[in-house]
Design a protein that fits this description.
142 residues; VC0802-like; alpha+beta; 4 helices; single chain; elongated; 28% helix
Length: 142
């Protein structure tokens, strides 16, 4: 099962990300994973929250333009080279990883990463066949 990621473009100025974080937090939405990529004028913020529908509604009501994308939350070994347990099966299946970023939770000794790939459903099947634990909605609250 895939999870929903929300992306939004923010003006690259002091306080823009803080304003969004404060807005979501005040409304009870918890950010569980986040990535920020910037250019000189605009930052693209990708994040996973505990309630994506609520977050999108709050953002739209406050003049943001959120975009929703399917991504995978994947459990990965937390040791040197552990990420290859996820990356090698995807490479062997010809699936391109566009980006990844860490989830703020853990499962035991394992880390959790969020993967944006070119073939989401196929990537999930490949990882499950290789005994990699892909996480569903429960990843929002880990």
């Amino acid at each position: 099962m895939v999870i929903k990621q929300i992306s939004v473009s923010l003006e690259n100025v002091p306080g823009a990300l803080s304003k969004l974080s404060e807005l979501l937090g005040r409304e009870g939405v918890n950010i569980r994973a986040i990535s920020v990529a910037d250019t000189s004028d605009i930052s693209t913020v990708r994040f996973v929250v505990d309630d994506p529908e609520k977050a999108k509604n709050i953002m739209r009501a406050n003049e943001y333009s959120p975009k929703e994308t399917d991504v995978l939350a994947v459990e990965t070994p937390d040791h040197p080279g552990g990420l290859n347990a996820v990356l090698i099966p995807l490479k062997n299946a010809g699936i391109n990883v566009h980006y990844l970023y860490p989830h703020l939770g853990r499962i035991g000794n394992n880390a959790i990463v969020i993967l944006g790939v070119d073939k989401t459903e196929e990537a999930q099947r490949v990882l499950q066949q290789n005994w990699i634990h892909t996480l569903g909605k429960e990843a929002y609250n880990i």
